[in-house]
Amino acid sequence: MIIEQIVPGVDTPPRIVAAASLTIGVAAAMAWRFGLSPPLAAYASFGVASVVVSVTDMVAQRIPNPVVFLACLVGPALLALASAHSDTWGSLTRAAIAAGALAGFYLLLGLGFPAGVGFGDVKWAGVTGLYLGWLDWSAVSTGTVVAFLGAAVFVAARRLASCRGRQLVVPMAPFMTAGSLVAILTTR
What we know:
Blueprint: H1 2-6, H2 13-34, H3 40-60, H4 65-86, H5 89-112, H6 119-135, H7 137-161, H8 172-186
Helix pairs in contact: 2-3, 3-4, 3-6, 3-8, 4-5, 4-6, 5-6, 6-7, 6-8, 7-8
């Protein structure tokens, strides 16, 4: 099945329907947030990529490189078009800096805790930093803090509910995505 190649682990009708419904919901939230404005296409594409990356990381503990690679190509192009339309080139510069800073931060985490942060997380952090940075620095900080708070709650809940001694795998992409969505939807 082609969807299994793009979204590993989303291989049953209920999972496919859930992922499709989530995608529609996130795209609708982006449309509500941006209306018919130049950044809508960029943020709608981010929403779609976010669902694919998050669902795959939750289900298969993998972040699909083709989706991240496409987001790395499409995102800057669409944000550049939005910047050109609204003459906000500073936003594009800030987005590039935030993408590098967030990817670098996650790279340092991955080097320090290789069992906890993978290279897929590093790449996805760069993508989320791009979109958060285009809005402003407060979106970057909000998205990052919400991601780590969500992950901390997840870890605490899993440790309370599971047997001791088992290694806990934390899929960071869903938390990065959730933090990003909270920041995008609340930053004005």
